[in-house]
Amino acid sequence: MLNLIVLQSSPYAGLVGIGIAILFIFIVLMTLVKRYKRCPSDRILVVYGKVSGGGSAKCIHGGAAFIFPVIQDYQFLDLTPISIEVNLVNALSKQNIRVNVPSRFTIGVSTEPGIMQNAAERLLGLGQSQIQELAQEIIFGQLRLVVASMDIEEINNDRDKFLTNISQSVETELKKVGLKLINVNITDIVDESGYIQALGKEAAAHAINAARKSVAEKNRDGSIGEANALQDERTQVAAANAKAVEGENIAKINVANSDSLRRQREAEAERVAIASEKVQTAKALEESYAAEQLAETARAERERSSQLADIIVPAEIDKRKVEIDAEAKAENIRRIARGEADAILFKAQAEAQGLYEVLTKQAAGLDEIVKAAGNNSKDAVLLLIADKLPELVRLQAEAIKNIKIDKITVWENGGGKDGKSSTSNFISGMYKSVPPLQEMFNMAGMDLPEYLKGKDIPVDLIDGKKEKSEE
Q1: What is the SS3 assignment for 105?
Q2: Residue-wise pLDDT tens digits, 383-433
Q3: How far from chain centre, in Å, is Cα 319?
Q4: Residue 181 is inside which H or E element, if any?
Q5: Please, are residues 423 and 461 in contact by the beta-carbon 8 Å criterion?
Q6: Where are the domains of the chain?
Q7: CATH number corresponding to 80-193
Q8: Name one GO cellular component term (predicted).
Q9: Which of 110, 434, 444, 451 is most exposed, with the fewest beta carbons within 10 Å of its own?
Q10: What is the distance of C-alpha 72 from the center of its chain?
């Protein structure tokens, strides 16, 4: 009791306890790490013992699991494929013909969940040779059953069906022990009686005959085809040539139609252009003639106004001219006083005002004349002509006023036509040479006096003029 108390009081006692605890924990951890098992991809991890789910074993492929010590243990199943040579000899077919079926099967442990569980229950602990023997026995039995259920013809001719039946039968039995069928390879199938060989020879002969027949038919078909091809070639070449000629003719017709249509269009366009040009020329001439007519009308109106103004108001113009001159002189004096520049300005204004007054007075005078004539322009013209008639008569009389006659010698017998002498005829003809006023008076709607119409002058007037002339 005393020694124990001494140890507890020793300064190294705590360190020892800690070391022991750490060592214990390390051992536990290492144990746990070693019990954590990872499953590679080419194996199946089988955990057996006390497993979850109530099964006899737990299969894991491609994962990991913790193996509890004491209550669980583990083992691996190899997934490496196993190749088994199965040489079935003297298998009885459905026709009671014995055949030899040399073949090779490739199998392996299945990774399907249910079948993998069967492998864990039936193959765990077996070596690869033991698994191969087990699978070989299952394959032999199922292969004999398949051969017994089929005819020789089916086995020989329909290899796909034969392999399908073998795969279905064998794989069904292999799954019961946890295996799966990977591949089946059947080599040559033979029988003791030579039936399969005979079938092969028959098939070969049939194939050879069929081939010969096919060759002959092909040669015949080739000859016929060659002849048909030559015939088709000649027919198609002739048809193509005919079609080409037809196409050329159609093309030429189309070209001719196109040229004709083009010429028609060009002629139509040219006709329309010429007609349009003539229409435009006619319109231009029409407008030109209309403008000239308006110009001539305006000019005639201007000339008529000018002539009326010259005939009707010459006196007014002269009078107004005097007034304008007086006003212009007065305005010039005023402009000189205001300066040379203002003088020019006022002169222009005075001239414009004078012209305005002249035109205003002329218009007023013409308006008064028209009103005096009862708003009849023809009567107004007659008034103007009547106003100028004395002057016109004076001018008419003065036409022969200044004719100087030095001497008149008359030889006549005193007789003449209508009682007129040659002297009177001379004087009368002289008056007839005066410019006639009859046309002007007719235009004005007036009658020229009889003595001014160029008729015969009374004899007494001629004799009086004659005596005066002799004096």
Answers
A1: strand
A2: 677 777 677 767 766 666 666 666 666 555 555 555 555 555 665 665 555
A3: 85
A4: strand 179-186
A5: no
A6: 2-76, 80-193, 392-471
A7: 3.30.479.30
A8: plasma membrane
A9: 451
A10: 84
